Known about the structure:
Layout: E1 9-12, H1 40-49, E2 56-59, H2 69-82, E3 87-92, H3 98-113, E4 118-123, H4 142-154, E5 160-162, H5 174-184, E6 190-192, E7 196-198, H6 203-208, E8 217-220, E9 231-234, H7 237-249, E10 254-255, H8 258-268
Parallel strand pairs: 1-2, 2-3, 3-4, 4-5, 5-6, 6-10
Antiparallel strand pairs: 7-9, 8-9
Amino acid sequence: MILVDKDKKITVSLGGICKLKCAHCYTNTGDFEHQKQLTIEETLRILEMKRGSFTTICISGDTDCFLDPYKGLELIKKIVANFTIENIMFTTRMIPPKEIIEELFQIGKMCNKRRQLFIPCISVVAFNCPNKIENSLLVPNTIERLEFLELLAGAGLPCFLTMRPTFPFEIIPFSEIVQILDYAKDAPAAVLGEVLLLDKDGVIERRLGIDVGQSEYQESKLTFINQPLEWKKLYCKKEHDTIKEECYRRGMPFFLRSMSAINYLKKIYEYNGIIIHQAKYFDEEVLNIFP
Length: 291
C-alpha cells in the first residue's frame, strides 16, 4: 500500500477505514482497497525499510491521523524521533485535546531548532457547517479548525491551509473560499488545493450531484498510495485560477501539490516561526498537478 512517489514523498497512516465518511473522499468508494490496520511499530518498520528513498514523510492518505488522537500523537512523536532530517507533515480535519496540542507545539519547536520542517496541514472544504461534504456530527466546524491552525501558527509552526480538493464552484461557492481566507488571514504558510479524485463508477459524482461529462480530467492510477485501479482526476481550472489569484492578492502562495509548497517553504523559511513570503516562487505549482 505504501509508495514513495517521484518527488520522494512517502505517505503513511495507521490504516483501517476512516470513520469520517466525507462525501467526496476516494477512500469512501467500492473502488478503494483499504490497507489493513497497522500498529505504530509496523508503520515505523516500513519507514525504516524505505529509509534513504524519501525526503518527506506525509502522515495522511487513507485515514485521519487524529481519529484516535493519542495514537496519532504517538505516531507523530516516534516518526519525529526516528527521522531527524526529513520533512514531516500531517493532515487532519480533527482537533485533538489541549494536552496533545501543547505537545505539537513542543515538537514544532524542536524541529525548528534542528532546521527540520514539521508542517501541520489543517483541512477544510467549506466555510459553512453543516455542508454537503462533511458529517458535522463527526468533524469539527470550519471556524474551530481555522482557530486550531491559528494556534499552531502562533506557536511558530509553519502550517498549510489545505482546501482540498478544489471543488467546482457549484458545490463550494467562491464566496465561501473568500470567507475561509478572510478568517485564516496570514496564519497559513501556504494554501493547498488539489484535483478532485473521482471513482470510475461515478459514486462520488452521484453523491455530490455532479456529472463531469467531457470536463478536463485525466484517468490514471494514484501516485501517492498504492491502488490497483485508475481514477478520474478532475482539474477545475477556472476554480483553481480564481482561488490562486485571490490568494496572490492577499500575498499568500497557493499550490496544487504539497511538494511544491514544501520546496517553496524550504527556500523562504528561516526556522524561526516567521513566514516572509516571496512572490517570485508563487507559480511553481503549475507542474505535476495530478496526484
